[in-house]
Design brief:
By secondary structure, the chain is mainly α. The protein is built from six helices and no strands. The chain has helices at about 5-20, 25-30, 35-40, 50-60, 70-80, 90-105. Helix 2 (about 25-30) crosses helix 3 (about 35-40) and helix 2 packs across helix 4 (about 50-60). The longest helix is centred in the C-terminal third of the chain and has 19 residues, at about 90-105.
């Protein structure tokens, strides 16, 4: 197996593991036999375009041909996206709670004319209507 094929196989394995998929689960998603996925990951067989495409699609990866001169920029962007902090379950729960509150506030249909003059804090809004 060539160096480039080894890098591709290793990247596919890392992606599969990050998604928490077994080879068997990836096989079910991609239609590529589990034994073949095992051989690809271990370097025992060459990776064909059809297998690469099926596995990449199952892993929610996009295959693209990038001009060699642009490859460093693409790698940098990809790395920055992959290294972006992930929201914790607690943060997601808080965001969902705030979204529900915002929906509730929007549903109140508050008369904006009643709050023409505000000093900047919600508690100090004074109506100019008399």
């Amino acid at each position: 197996m060539s160096y480039e094929s080894e890098k591709l196989a290793a990247a596919l394995k890392v992606s599969r593991e990050k998604k928490g998929l077994s080879q068997r689960a990836l096989s079910a998603r991609s239609g590529v036999p589990q034994s073949h996925i095992s051989k690809i990951e271990s370097g025992a067989v060459n990776l064909t375009v059809s297998s690469l495409t099926a596995i990449a699609n199952a892993l929610d990866l996009e295959l693209a041909l990038v001009p060699r001169k642009a490859a460093p920029a693409v790698r940098t962007i990809t790395r920055s996206v992959n290294d972006a902090p992930k929201a914790t379950p607690e943060a997601r729960k808080e965001i969902a709670r705030l979204a529900r509150q915002l929906e509730h506030i929007q549903s109140l249909k508050i008369d904006s004319l009643a709050f023409e003059s505000c000093s900047g804090s919600f508690g100090n809004c004074v109506s100019s209507r008399t």
